Amino acid sequence: xxxxxxxxxxxxxxxxxxxxxxxxxxxxxxxxxxxxxxxxxxxxxxxxxxxxxxxxxxxxxxxxxxxxxxxxxxxxxxxxxxxxxxxxxxxxxxxxxxxxxxxxxxxxxxxxxxxxxxxxxxxxxxxxxxxxxxxxxxxxxxxxxxxxxxxxxxxxxxxxxxxxxxxxxxxxxxxxxxxxxxxxxxxxxxxxxxxxxxxxxxxxxxxxxxxxxxxxxxxxxxxxxxxxxxxxxxxxxxxxxxxxxxxxxxxxxxxxxxxxxxxxxxxxxxxxxxxxxxxxxxxxxxxxxxxxxxxxxxxxxxx
Length: 303
Fold this sequence. Notes:
Number of helices: 10
Distance between the termini: 34 Å
Structural class: alpha+beta
Number of strands: 11
Shape: globular
Order of helices and strands: HHEEHHHHHHEEEEEEHHEEE
Strand content: 15-25%
Number of domains: 2
Largest sheet: 6 strands, mixed
């Protein structure tokens, strides 16, 4: 299934304004096409019922999927990235054949950059090039999981990281006439509320430590919220209603000028996820229970 017409038009507009992004935009569109593919609806996350109250829904989860689905998606993404050119392209083309796609997908879902670096070293793949694909690789599986577990998950959630997958917010919507701030996750499409004067990263709620950068061209409709305590930032965009989950990553690219403004002033985003997910991928069971599912290990399947 293809992306919606609105998303496609946004991608086309970005390609016209920033032709140097065409390779990345092609990969993003492929990932969003995959997000909407019906095959991912077969994914079955089994949640850890003993997880801590501060843990996102998928922390410690066992996520069942058909192995061929994960392998085919990661192979295709690596091949496309290799054809797009740029640094590491040749190694990505080779990785499409020799990298363990399921281990890479599991590391991508958990945003485990150490595991990704290890896989790159083991397969002779350019580490930076492979790491750049982590977010795209995880999108279809994480968004399928969100569709399964989203009901009631974000109600009362007060943490800065995503209630579903533990990632830090991609950006925030200042939504509707009420102007509530809703944090959005570009990986899984998560949507949760935060108080106006709160830093999602360190929790500081002191207005003297929090500030904002306002876009010259868009005024208060597009801003950067900053924190003097942790030197973190996040972007806000005024919207009437929520963006569809598959549009969040597109709007992130469309507001990259805000990222540049923040970085130039010494602000940044955490290099690690807000919560170490620790989820695992397991083979989808053909029986009525999960007892016969198998987990991926370093050398293939183990029971």
